[in-house]
Fold this sequence. Notes:
Keywords: Membrane, Transmembrane, Transmembrane helix. The protein has 97 residues and is of the alpha+beta class. The chain is built from 3 helices and 3 strands; from the N terminus they run αββααβ. Helix 1 runs antiparallel to helix 2 (46-64).
Amino acid sequence: MKKLLSTVLQFVMFLLVYAIGSLFPPFHIQRILIATPTYSRIFIMDGLLIALALYILIVLGETLMKRRCQITWTTIAFVLAMVFGYLMKFGFITHEF
């Protein structure tokens, strides 16, 4: 039960970090996906990169505390949060001219 609760809370945390990093990008790392004379489609990578850095820190902490079985649940929470964030279109911006 603790592992499930921990996984759900990590999922919510990763999703919130992804969303906040995409809405308020601190590093302004952008990739132009489509550019036409009438509109451009941009992906802001800040939320994704901050969530990835947070995931790496959590995994390193779990490794140092020798909780190797928890790394699997953390990875599941991270991957699900990234998939849901992508489906919610976090980080995608369309500019029309």
